[in-house]
Amino acid sequence: MANRRPVQQAHERYFVDQFLIWINSAYRSNFKVTSEPNPPDAIIRSSKTTRWVEVSTAFWTFEYARDLYSYATPNEPYKPVVPGPYYDMDHFFANEFVSVVSKKLEKKSYIPWKNKYGPGYLIVPIKHPWFDGETIRVMKDLWNNCIFNDLGCFRSVRIAFPSLKKIKFYRWPKK
């Protein structure tokens, strides 16, 4: 199997960079990446504070993730998603999203980073070809009916998705 790690690192770094562009503009800060310990994906520092960022992508399906990664990974045979028909795509994606986020919120290995730098930022890029307002409504409905143990390691969860040729960051409501 081809090594997907460089592609994954480039993907994560892209979203960290886009997040820094957004947060520096929105909050008039000057955060820069100072290290990439993995995990977390980045330690960021401004003139006033140090924080950390973790990126965890929510894919429509496992097969869709394999499609995207196999296409982007050198020397890996491309494995496209099989043709449909597909149904209930928003509900399926919402389950994937809640699974990704709840695992991160419950992950104990982030506690040392929280203790060292305070709560970090969880960035969740959305990889769902039919993502829209209805998808968000379904995600929120499922999210509000889930039970998990948030360890408080993240100051915010931000979903990231393309909008008008740039990446938009939307604060996901914490419970």
Helix content percent band: 25-40%
pLDDT under 50 segments (min length 5)? Answer: none
Total count of strands: 7
Question: C-alpha Rg, in Å?
Answer: 17 Å
Biggest sheet character: 7 strands, mixed
How many DSSP helices? 5
Given helix and strand content, the structural type is alpha/beta
- What is the count of distinct domains? 1
Order of helices and strands: HEEEEHHHEHEE
Mean pLDDT: 94
Question: What is the CA-CA span between the terminal residues?
Answer: 40 Å
- Please state the overall shape, judged from the principal axes of the Cα atoms: globular
Proportion of residues in extended strands: 15-25%
Task: Describe the structure using short key phrases.
about 180 residues, alpha/beta, 7-stranded mixed beta sheet, 7 strands, globular
What does this structure look like?
- The chain is α/β, with parallel strands linked by helices and 175 residues long.
- It has one domain (5-172).
- The chain is 39% helix and 23% strand.
- The protein has five helices and seven strands.
- It has helices spanning 5-26, 62-72, 89-105, 111-117, 133-144, and strands at residues 32-35, 42-45, 50-55, 58-59, 120-127, 154-163, 166-172.
- Strands 1, 2, 3, 4, 5, 6 and 7 form a seven-stranded mixed beta sheet that branches.
- Strand 2 and strand 3 form a beta hairpin.
- Helix 3 crosses helix 5.
- 25% of the residues are buried.
- The mean pLDDT is 94.
List the helices and strands and how they pair.
Layout: H1 5-26, E1 32-35, E2 42-45, E3 50-55, E4 58-59, H2 62-72, H3 89-105, H4 111-117, E5 120-127, H5 133-144, E6 154-163, E7 166-172
